[in-house]
Amino acid sequence: AQSVSQHNHHVILSEAASLELGCNYSYGGTVNLFWYVQYPGQHLQLLLKYFSGDPLVKGIKGFEAEFIKSKFSFNLRKPSVQWSDTAEYFCAAGGTSYGKLTFGQGTILTVHP
Amino acid sequence: DSGVTQTPKHLITATGQRVTLRCSPRSGDLSVYWYQQSLDQGLQFLIHYYNGEERAKGNILERFSAQQFPDLHSELNLSSLELGDSALYFCASSVVSGVGYTFGSGTRLTVV
């Protein structure tokens, strides 16, 4: 069965701190990986995606993620967080067949100014 | 504005009632997906339609049904509502399956 696991439920950082959110997936076959962000009261927005090629993927707002196939991981990183990064972050995995995405439980990031 | 339009934004209804949630996908997107987001279950895939045809079903209850119309908008029908159906219902659309979606703002359903 497909599954996505996010290691941390709630991460609290100060501004300018570095961020790494963990994501591990279990998926049969070719997998596409995504990170979405949900700001308070808003819809989910795509941060970045990995389909193939360079395992280091750059997304919007300075975020990047690294696909490590041997570890079944797709961790999200940002070198220096801002207060405006306070949000909930979701890792998701999907195949190419029907487009269903399996989401992780989400990680709430709180950044203190 | 993501381009995916969901109505209504908020809905409060009583147990046992039936509601219809509506989603208009981004222009050009043929796929529509429905997800339920609740505190205890997280984001759960409900159903996927592509160009009017059902493509995949997830954890969708028999009391729930959906359809996609010729103009590509979709409706999610929830009947015999229970308190546990209270959640955020998101619609998403994509051009091609599997490439990542664009989400709507969701409909917050409260069953009292």
Keywords for this structure?
heterodimer, A: 113 residues, mainly beta, four-stranded antiparallel β-sheet, 12 strands, 0% helix, globular, B: 112 residues, seven-stranded mixed β-sheet, 11 strands
Question: Can you offer a commentary on this structure?
Answer:
The complex is a heterodimer of chains A (113) and B (112). Chain A is an all-beta fold. In chain A, 0% of the residues lie in helices and 54% in strands. Chain A contains no helices and 12 strands. Chain A is globular. With 112 residues, chain B is mostly beta strands. In chain B, 0% of the residues lie in helices and 54% in strands. Chain B is built from no helices and 11 strands. In chain B, the strands form 2 sheets. In chain B, strands 2, 4, 5, 6, 9, 10 and 11 form a 7-stranded mixed β-sheet that branches. In chain B, strands 1-3-8-7 form a 4-stranded antiparallel β-sheet, with no helix packed on it. The radius of gyration of chain B is 13 Å and the shape is globular. Classes of the chains: A mainly beta (113), B mainly beta (112). At the A-B interface, strand 5, strand 6 and strand 11 of A face strand 4, strand 5, strand 9 and strand 10 of B.
Oligomer class: heterodimer
The major sheet of chain A is characterized as:
6 strands, mixed
SSE succession of chain B: EEEEEEEEEEE
DSSP summary, beta strand count of chain A: 12
Which structural class best describes the helix and strand composition of chain A? mainly beta
Which percent bin holds the helix content of chain B?
A: under 10%
Calculate Rg of chain B over CA atoms. Answer: 13 Å
Instruction: Tell me the distance between the termini of chain B.
Output: 30 Å
Poorly predicted residue ranges of chain B? none
β-strand amount of chain B = over 45%
Summarize model confidence as the mean pLDDT of chain A.
Answer: 92
> Mean pLDDT of chain B, rounded to whole units?
92
Broad shape of chain B = globular
Helix content of chain A: under 10%
- Tell me the number of helical segments of chain B per DSSP (H or I, 4 or more residues long): 0
H/E series of chain A: EEEEEEEEEEEE
> Based on helices, strands and strand pairing, what is the structural class of chain B?
mainly beta
Poorly predicted tracts of residues of chain A: none
